[in-house]
Amino acid sequence: MLKREENELITRVGPGTPMGGLMREYWVPALLSAELPAPDSDPVRVLLLGEQLIAFRDTNGKVGLIQNNCPHRGASLFFGRNEEGGLRCVYHGWKFAVDGTCVDMPNEPAESDFKQKVKAVAYPCQERGGIVWTYMGPRHTPPPLPNLEANMLEGATATAFQLESNWLQILEGDIDTTHVGFLHYGGLRPEDQPPGTFSEYQLRQKPAHFEVIDTPGGVAYGARRPGPPGEHYWRIAQFAMPFYTFTPPGVLGVKKNNGARVPMDDYHTMTYFMNAGNRQGAGVVNAVFPERIPDSTDWYGRNRFKPSLANDFQVDREMQRTNTGGGGFTGIASLLMQDAAMTSSMGPIFDRSTEHLGSADAMVIQVRRRLLNAVKAYQERGITPSGVDNPEVYQVRSGGVFLPTGADWVQATHELRKAFVEHPELDPTLNGPL
Questions:
Q1: For the chain, how many structural domains are there in total?
Q2: What is the pTM of this model?
Q3: Which end of the chain is more exposed for a tag (fewer CB within 10 A), N or C?
């Protein structure tokens, strides 16, 4: 378990916090490209790492992410006119380009050079794979974007949704493999799964033996269960700094996807799922999304689902009692909302000093250690965290695999865990339906 001060250190992300400073060293997903659908389209409020920002796409199609308050008198630039290559504050007409440069100051005398002395805070943006990335850190020249194949390959897609709890609380659900057999599949039987698939062996034995390793970009685990005669079924998952997860559903070597649990603030998280290639057996990216509610323009108004903490995630107690319908064991129809119900029900930030962690929590424990070590090294010695200057550390994959009994999973899966490598000999249907 974490001490309370350690819990605070790795969960708080606002300006001036150690973890917030560490995250600002990286490129961060800010919003989906589709949220700014066309040049001069409506500005969008973006809450990111505790900062209130305004996103807009200018006349030339370039994306800007600029401070909410106009540098003049503090009016919100959300109300600005997106016109002719800039965002114009409607209070006094000051106009700003995507880089924060003041390009027009019509309420000052024509001979004045005052606009040369004023610049709004603006963060550089790049678009890739359907995501607008931004760099909020101190470098004049930003580091490279992470080499996430699911964000780089042709046909890469992205989706986003908002959840009501701390980013790390949500992320830890991604790296906890034993909850799956209970929360998601507690009402299912192994004999009802296609024989010989991962789905069958995942249900035959719900506990697993965990082996955890540090990687150049973060942490990985192998979770071992009995498999076919002479083999073990291994579920391989990865965490990469500072908030990326590569979850195990699917076939290792085939699936090309990852998640990013990006903090809006300490109590709200925007999740980005990135996917490329064969979607069969791709896990949560393939999950059926619940009904969304229309976006509003407030700071928490983007990418929300209808099931939420406010309506108990629409839990159906009759479904739960009878183990029928899509929610069966839980009474909550969507797998995504089953996870969300658990993590948000802990409260906005759970006091981890009260936990009782067991052997099945080995990955959670090691990821916390990695984060603590990284943020302390950054705070105390100014050491740049892993992945900032090494985009290749994100070239990893996760998934399931059958290995001979006694095999070293780290060595045996070395090639399968590499991104940007094709394995046409592998059958994605081996995963089964779960």
A1: 2
A2: 0.95
A3: N
